[in-house]
Amino acid sequence: MRKTVTSLLFMLGLAACSYPQVGVKTVETRPALAFTNASPTAQLSIDGVYIGQAALYDGKKQTLQLDRGTHKVLVEDRGRILLEQTVYLGDEVTKTIAVPN
Questions:
Q1: Do 29 and 91 meet the contact criterion of CB atoms below 8 Å apart?
Q2: Which tens digit of pLDDT belongs to each residue from 10-61?
Q3: Measured between alpha carbons, how far is 76 from 94 in angstroms, rounded to an integer?
Q4: Structural domain boundaries in the chain
Q5: Rounded distance, CA 47 to CA 62, Å?
Q6: I want to staple 55 with a disulfide (CB 3.0 to 4.6 A). Which of 17, 38, 63, 101 is the partner?
Q7: SS3 string of the chain?
Q8: How far apart are the C-alpha atoms of 89 and 45, rounded to whole Å?
Q9: The pairing of beta strand 32-36 with beta strand 94-98
């Protein structure tokens, strides 16, 4: 009986041992842009490069990661320019731009 109890305690102690959990998390340190009040049809271009729908980068679900520096932001909706602005983005900054109607 004593041998059984000792064996059982040894097995429980062994089962409690496990390898440490190790994980690596990459932290994004680049600046980002977010756009509020953008309609689903508003189209976004940065530095003359078409990006896609401005509403996708609302700051809640997703932001647009960019390199540090000065960028030309253009938001158009059905051929009409809603926003044309030059912005400077520094380290680890998320700049939120309200798109006019």
A1: yes
A2: 666 666 666 666 666 666 688 999 999 999 999 999 999 999 999 999 999 9
A3: 21
A4: 24-98
A5: 20
A6: 38
A7: CHHHHHHHHHHHHHHHCCCCCCCCCCCCCCCEEEEECCCCCCEEEECCEEEEEHHHCCCCCCCEECCCEEEEEEEEECCEEEEEEEEEECCCCEEEEECCC
A8: 16
A9: parallel
